[in-house]
Amino acid sequence: RQHEAPRRVKRAWVIPPISVSENHKRIPHLLVQIKSDKQQPGGVIYSIKGPGVDEEPLGIFSIDKFSGKVFLNAMLDREENDRYRLRAFALDLGGVTLEDPTDLEIIVVDQNDNRPLFRQDVFTGRVVEGAEPGTCVMTVDATDADDPDTDNAALRYSILEQGTAAMFSINATTGEICTARPGLDRETMGVYNLTVQAADMSGDGLTTTAMAVIYLEDINDNPPEFTKEEFSMEVEEQAAGVDVGKVFVHDKDLAGSPSWLAKFTILEGDPEGAFAIRTDPHTNDGVLSVVKPLDHEVRDRFELTVSVQNERPLEPSVPTSPRALATVRVRVRDVNEAPVFRENPRRISVLEGTPPGTAITTYTASDPDTHQIQTLSYALLYDPADWLQLDPHSGTVRTKRELLHPSAFLQGGWYIALLLARDDAEPPLSATGTLSIEILEVNDHAPQLQPPAGVLCGRPGRGGTLLLGATDDDRPPHGAPFHFQLSPQNPQLARNWSIARFNVTHAVLAVLAELPEGPYSLPLLLRDSGTPPREQQQLLNVSVCHCGRDGTCLDGVLAAATAGAGITLGALMIILGSTILLLVLVALGAARVRGRRRALRKGLLQRSRDDMRDNILNYDEQGGGEEDQDAYDINQLRHPELFSPRAKPPLRRDAPLSSGTPLAPRKLPSSPSDIEDFINEGLEAADSDPSVPPYDTALIYDYEGEGSVASPLSSIVSSLTDEDQDYDYLSEWGPRFRRLADLYG
Q1: pLDDT, tens digit, for every residue of 20-30?
Q2: Where mainly located (predicted)?
């Protein structure tokens, strides 16, 4: 069996890659001629397709369709497109494919037509001053658009310019810049500007340049120094918290850095710490200030030794040097100073009742200005009770009036006054001193028996006791405890009576033997605990009553009556006089009311012809009227039978607490016809009441009376619905009431 041999491709139709240089200027340029072995009568039609022909970029390549010649019609740029892949076709005249399409590759050959480009125009780097040689600072780099596989893109770096010192070097291949020698000093040159170059063709081709800026970072390699060795300043005395002056320094390190910031110290000349020095953060100078007031009279000059150094210590590589020192001389200027009360406040003690004009103290101030001749004068600045007088020259304080307890101007027994001391300088200065006066209590009051009367049973052991008390106007320790005893001048009292202490202010009076009922006057001696003690003999009025089984008084009437024995003659006269005066005033008031009513009746008939409404409203009655229901109860006056003797009588507020209430209270008169009669009955009841002392009784004075000629206005209003009311009498009042008589008559 015969095998079919493989088909052989024509060599003429296989096209090898074609190379053409970029930037070829002879256009059109024949690149290649393609040819098919299958010649047909009439010829072969050739064509090409692909980028540069019928695809973007268009029109770069073309072919002669009859000869198969391929032409370059435009300049090529390898950096845009480094090769083109086309397809070649062979057809007969009828458009039938004679050959399979074949590839046509056109390679663009590179030329050195692009300069190197640095990635940035200015490169920045930093290195500390004093860095060792070989310390790398930064790397500069560039690019080249040419073929990296050719020398057209082989770059080399160099430093074209860096000054005369040549302190830096660059790696030609990598572009890394490093220090080349020692001696970098920021204080000498802080910034280095280098011009670097990049060249292709391994340094022999196209070139470009850029700037490399290198900053030296500061280190503390320079200590601060004073601008001069001595500084002079002055300050006023008594000034505190003020700046005196500045000391100036210089530091070569970078301003504002920790290596530049100075720190000052006062080494000598200020043992009391009157001065302080701080650093001005803007200028780095030392600011000297006063922190404690200076006294020119004590010390007028200071000589301070001040040192300065940096906040950050010097670098170890820097040679050590002693700290910078300077002398600061400060002169203290003398100024006028205010007087001073050395003892402020001044506390003194004065006895209560000290007579006026008594010198109690001399309160003076001193003038700190010992180098100036000045005179001080004094005045009272605050004396609320006007108790004191002051000598303006000597400062002696005297009493103007007696200093007594109690007083609203005393605070805890102390009286506060303010004194003013003033010098005679220009302008004058003053000072205020506080004078605290303690008013010492004097025992000038004896204790008083409270109350001076009482009631007790006359049987020992069963209610035969009475609690006694006392008060004293003096303050402690001249008051309680009080001592109660029977008068030593009447020793016979001890047979029937005894006094025992109950507490510091009270004692208990007890009956020792059974006593008959009736009043007793016991002279007692009361003594306080002051120094020296004050004592006073006083009468205690005791009423002894009939005792029941439980020790209480059975006969309340007798007890109430005998309680009057505890009232002194003077008090009794005052009560009687007050009662008589009150009754006279009430009688005068009643007479005045009756007189006004008569005048009213007469005036109603004698008035001129005015408006009827004015005459009706002219009513001078002083009673409460219908709406005044709080001052009295008219039912109690009209119906006294409702308040029978069996009812519980009201409490007598004018009777002593120990007295009983009357057994038969006063009855209200039945149907009283006038206030005067009612008052007379009340007076008679008060005078004839045997159960209480004649204090007066709880009388009722708010009854308006009955049978008034002028009826109240309310009766006129209420008559609108009262058919039995007769108003014919209005016509008898004259022509002024005629219209009113027509309306209601």
Answers
A1: 888 888 889 99
A2: membrane
- Structure token pair of residue 313: 């210590």
The CATH number given to 117-217 is 2.60.40.60
Q: How many CB atoms lie within 10 A of CB 226?
A: 21
Beta strands per DSSP E along 636-695: none
**Residue tagged 């080494």 (tokens):** 267
Q: Which residues pair with 399 in a beta bridge?
A: 388
Q: Are 346 and 395 in contact (CB under 8 A)?
A: no
The 10 Å CB-count burial string (b at 16+, else e) for 590-606 is beebeeebeebeeebee
Count of helices and strands (H, E) across the chain: 7, 40
Identify which of 201, 184, 62, 64 has the alpha carbon closest to the alpha carbon of residue 125.
184
Which option is the CATH number for 18-109: 3.60.15.10, 2.40.37.20, 1.10.10.60, 2.60.40.60? 2.60.40.60
Of residues 3, 234, 205, the one with CA closest to residue 115: 205
Burial 615-625 (b: 16+ CB within 10 A, else e): beeeeeeeeee
Beta strand segments in 375-473, E: 377-382, 388-390, 396-399, 414-422, 430-440, 448-450, 453-457, 465-471
Q: Which amino acid is at 234?
A: E
Is 691:663 a contact under the CB 8 Å cutoff?
Answer: yes
Tokens of 474: 């003096």
Listed in sequence order, the residues at least 6 apart from 126 whose beta carbon sits closer than 8 Å to its beta carbon are: 137, 214, 215, 216, 217
Enumerate the β-bridge partners of residue 84.
Answer: 106
Domain ranges of the chain: 18-109, 117-217, 227-333, 346-440, 448-545
Count the alpha carbons within 13 Å of 403 in the hemisphere toward its beta carbon.
30
Q: How many CA atoms lie within 13 A of 631 on its CB side?
A: 11
Cα torsion 520, 521, 522, 526: sign: positive
Please give the CATH topology (third level) of the domain spanning 227-333.
Immunoglobulin-like (2.60.40)
DSSP state of 470: E
Which amino acid would we find at residue 483? Answer: H
Residue 179: φ, ψ to 5°: -70, 145
User: Which fold does the domain 346-440 belong to in CATH?
Assistant: Immunoglobulin-like (2.60.40)
Tens-place pLDDT, residues 327-363: 999 999 888 778 889 889 999 988 887 889 999 999 9
Q: What's the CA dihedral at 314, 317, 322, 328 to 10 degrees?
A: -30
**Residue 719 dihedral angles phi and psi, to the nearest 5°:** -75, -5
Q: What is the pLDDT of residues 436-475, one digit of tens each?
A: 998 887 777 788 888 889 888 888 876 678 888 988 877 7
Can you say whether the dihedral through the CA atoms of 129, 133, 138, 142 is positive or negative? positive
Is the pLDDT score of 707 beyond 70? no
Element containing residue 411 per DSSP (H, E): none
Residue 224 pLDDT grade (very low, low, confident, very high; cuts 50, 70, 90): very high
**In sequence order, what are the beta bridge partners of 111?**
none
Closest CA to 435 of 350, 501, 351, 511: 350
In angstroms, the CA 81 to CA 107 distance is 9
Whether the CB-CB separation of 22 and 74 falls below 8 Å is answered with no
- Hey, which bits of 528-611 come out as E strands? 535-545
Residue type, 57: P
Helix, strand and coil in the chain, % to nearest 5: 15, 35, 50
Residue 569's Cβ-count burial label (10 Å; 0-12, 13-18, 19+) is: exposed
* Nearest residue to 658 via CA among 574, 518, 552: 552
Gap between the Cα atoms of 17 and 3, Å rounded:
35
Instruction: Please give the Cα distance from 125 to 214 (Å, whole number).
Output: 5
Q: How many residues does the chain have?
A: 745
CA 371 to chain CA centroid, nearest Å: 46
- The CATH number assigned to the domain with range 448-545 reads 2.60.40.60
